Amino acid sequence: MILATREDIPQRKITEVLGLVRGSSVRARHLGKDIGAVLKNLVGGEIPEYTKLLAESREQALDRMLEEARALGADAVVALRYSSSEISTGAAEVLVYGTAVRFAPRDDEI
Hints:
The chain has 110 residues and is of the alpha+beta class. The protein has two helices and four strands, in the order ββααββ. A four-stranded mixed beta sheet has the order 1-3-4-2.
């Protein structure tokens, strides 16, 4: 599946727009990891516990969006965007969304 932040794919003609597809993941911080993060926050620098948590959330949200796109029979998702928001203290949502599309067959695919 082709994923792109742009609205078109070079050398491919979009013939059908299947609609909005999205995936989200809501994650909460872990108390044990939070203690380490607070200590690292005092001295500065990257907080690997949070970096890993957000990376896992992004991947899970992306996987869910791809599952939705595949169910529609999409060849690609264009205009892909990520968004995040705080749901409550200590919990956040990562949302990924885009437009599922189909391409015209390539000359070499006919």
